[in-house]
Amino acid sequence: MQFVDLAAQQRRIRGKIEENIRVVLDHGSYVMGPEMKELEARLAEYAGVRHALACASGTDALLLALMAYGIGPGDAVFTTPFTFIATAEAIGLLGATPVFVDIDAKTFNIDPEKLDEAITALMSRDPRPLNPKGIIAVDLFGLPADYDRIGSIAQKHGLFVMEDAAQSFGAEYKGRRACSLGHVSCTSFFPAKPLGCYGDGGMCFTDDDHLSHLIESLRMHGIGNDRYDNVRLGINGRMDTLQAAIVLAKFEIFPEEVVLRNEVAARYSELLATRSSLSGPFIPEGSRSVFAQYSILAESGPHRAAIQAKLKEAGVPTAIYYPKPLHLQGAFASLDYKVGAFPVSEECASRIFSLPMHPYLEFPDQERIVETFRR
Ligand SMILES: *Cc1c(COP(=O)(O)O)cnc(C)c1O
User: Fold this and answer.
1) Which are the contacts of 338, defined by CB distance < 8 A and separation ≥ 6?
2) Which ligand 1 atom is the nearest neighbour of the CA of 189?
3) Does any ligand 1 atom lie closer than 6 A to the CB of residue 164?
4) Cα-flanking dihedrals φ and ψ of residue 145, to 5°?
5) CA nearest ligand 1 atom 14, residue
6) Beta bridge partners of 220
7) Closest Cα to atom 10, ligand 1: which residue?
8) How far is CA 169 from the centre of its chain?
9) Which atom of ligand 1 is nearest to the CA of 193?
């Protein structure tokens, strides 16, 4: 059994993928080709935003968006410690300081109440050690964070909101699509994400014309009016035309895959509710997850280890996202956070695990999985 079955997806669209690749080989415009522009237009429309800027990875998308805001040394950006390293890495790489805020125990996303407290605490220190600039909320496992509350907190304190939608392209929050929920949103097309390419790719989304203009320049070495006019320092952060051609082929079946993912998740949750002591992920009223991961909490660390061992024996792969919260990572040792600083994140890191999840998972396999770990 596969944790993510990309081969099953490829069987459906192999012809279209090969055709799209052939078109790129024929026109030979491998960088900034027409497929990249077409993908930007299609995904901007799907997300419901004015601008989409394709880039080389989800990490570059985050980096470019922060660069567009001019984030640098002395700045504070608030985010969650219960995410993939890239979220906070982008902040740190620019010399700014990630300020971590604990998560909500049910959604695994940043806790708006604690966010407000953390911002207020930093703002009221005299002298202020850092300049609070923005918030990066993460839509963990494909479930959007609580943007209504995050947005009003941000507005109150004069901060920008970035959406790390690397796992949530295709999700919904109160009638709006993921990638439209922050002032700027960033997604990833890493192969295992809900909408993936066959390599690395990412995209920034925004309604802000000025930010869009800056990101477009920054992804191409700070380009000005022509290729050899450089008006700011940027990076080589473009997306390959071939990767765009592949995402275009996959996007044709993506809306259907979002429905299939939700059906798979609903079947898991039903099986868990009726045949186990564990429960499926909590999805708030008005939200739709894309279930980039189907993650649940075991009763304890040893309970998790026992479940994973039983599943492994039965040939079922599992994964742990994430075993170590970012505030305890060596990369952020200089921030001097201690064990116990974010108890909810630490508790989740010790108990969480993810089951195989993809649109083509079948009921008998799901039944077998839940039966295995029930014993
Ligand atoms: C995957 C991921 C990223 C980084 O995306 P890449 O395309 O791998 O660079 C950033 N944030 C989160 C939450 C992710 O899951």
Assistant:
1) none
2) 7
3) yes
4) -70, 180
5) 166
6) 236
7) 86
8) 8
9) 1
| Helix (H/G/I), strand (E/B), else coil: 233 | coil
Residue to probe by mutation, ligand 1, list 79, 87, 204, 240, most atoms within 8 Å of CB: 87
What the block records as the tokens of 345 is 């994140």
Instruction: Sort 111 into a burial class: Cβ within 10 Å, 0-12 / 13-18 / 19+.
Output: buried
C-beta neighbour count of 151 within 10 angstroms: 17
**In this predicted model, what pLDDT tens digit does every residue of 85-127 receive, in sequence order?**
999 999 999 999 999 999 999 999 999 999 999 999 999 999 9
Residues 6 or more apart whose CB falls under 8 angstroms from that of 146 comprise 104, 107, 109, 112, 284
CA 64 / ligand 1 centre spacing (Å): 14
| Cβ pair 197, 57 in contact under 8 A | no
Q: How far apart are CA 239 and CA 57, in angstroms?
A: 8
Amino acid at 286: G
pLDDT digits (tens, 9 = 90+) for 181-230: 999 999 999 999 999 999 999 999 999 999 999 999 999 999 998 888 99
Specify the long-range contacts of residues 29-32, CB closer than 8 Å, at least 24 apart.
29/241, 30/240, 30/241, 30/242, 31/238, 31/240, 31/241, 32/220, 32/238, 32/241
CA of 57 to the centre of ligand 1 (A): 8
What atom in ligand 1 is closest to the CA of residue 139?
A: 13
**In this structure, which amino acid lies at residue 325?**
P
**Ligand 1: distance of its center to the CA of 2 in Å?**
21
> 0.85 cut: is pTM over it?
yes
Mutate to test the pocket of ligand 1, among 84, 185, 193 (most ligand atoms within 8 A of CB): 84
What is the four-CA torsion angle of 182, 200, 190, 55, rounded to 10 degrees? 10
Cα separation of 368 and 375, whole Å? Answer: 11
Report whether 366 contacts 264 (CB < 8 A).
yes
